[in-house]
Amino acid sequence: MAMEELAWEPIRATSTEVLDRDMDGLHTLPLSMAPLESPSLRQLKMIKNHRLESVIEVFSMRRRASLQVEVANVGQLFGWSDGEHYADLDLLNAISKLPSFDVYSLRYLLRARGHDVNGDPNLKLSEAKSAELSEYIIVFTRPLISSIYGGEKVEINKPGDLIGLFQDPDRAKVRRRLDLMARELDIEMIAVPAFLENYGDILLSLAFYKQCLDEVTPIVTEFLGMMDVVRSNQMTRKQDDLMAICVAVEGEVNELTSTVAQRFAELDLVSRDIRDNDLAKGFKDLEAKIRDHHRSIGGVLCGLTVKMGIWEGMFPDKESASPSKIADFIKFHMKQGLETMREVQVESFDWH
What we know:
Elements: E1 8-10, H1 16-23, E2 28-30, E3 45-48, E4 54-61, E5 65-70, H2 75-78, H3 87-96, H4 103-112, H5 127-132, H6 134-149, H7 160-164, H8 171-185, H9 192-232, H10 240-276, H11 279-314, H12 323-334, H13 338-345
Helix pairs in contact: 6-9, 6-10, 9-10, 9-11, 9-12, 10-11, 10-12, 10-13, 11-13
């Protein structure tokens, strides 16, 4: 079969839609978002494969397969000399160790490496995704504003509106707002805008993960329900090894999903405390909790998103899915990488 018939395509951002989908993903990372020196490398992307391994995707065959290269071998693509030190390779190795490729995990990593993440226009969600997250953001920001400004009419619908509070042409109003917030947060007045910018970034991270959880949970529930097709089939239910795998996979997936949901519930409780207790302490507690849970939540959600994406692609018509094909998916796709998710779930990671 000719190469053209296979429809192989180089991985490049050919449209805003494609780039947005990748940059807003948990398991895909356009390398144009990273501060890499090689222009050719920046045209590719890093992905998590079905085993949740980090690889460089060089070519793809639409909806069917892709040509992937391990990070350790990427130098062969560009003729890099053995034994030479390449800064790009160092950065790629660091990125490949992230359990999730979402933009906030990348920002944390680059900030720790001394990169100016706030000044980098590549390190953000697409405008479309940010707009989608508005309803999640409002839940967290409105209590903040009502706690500080009381009866003053202030509209907050997105993180940028927080900074907009201090761009009012009424200078007296701006100074009053700054003074109120500085006293409530126990910080210098001059530090308030920077605090709100950082807080907005943290909230977007939390909102992004919450949306990912809301999107993947129904698919996980559907998949777990379809496992009954395998257990009830006369042929597959007689395979003891398969039944053991089904029990293990179901238990792991249930635990992973419920643990992420519990962590969001904990974060919600912390955010509610902000309204009733000392604001300065409340925000510090919320930020610390989000940072504590960030890596594990992102890693588990990334893994589940990869798995459920494969599930949806292989079984677009669930009603006609055969027990044997579902069994193959469980054995050869679902089982692979669950240990990786389990390990990151129990990780404690300090992002500071």
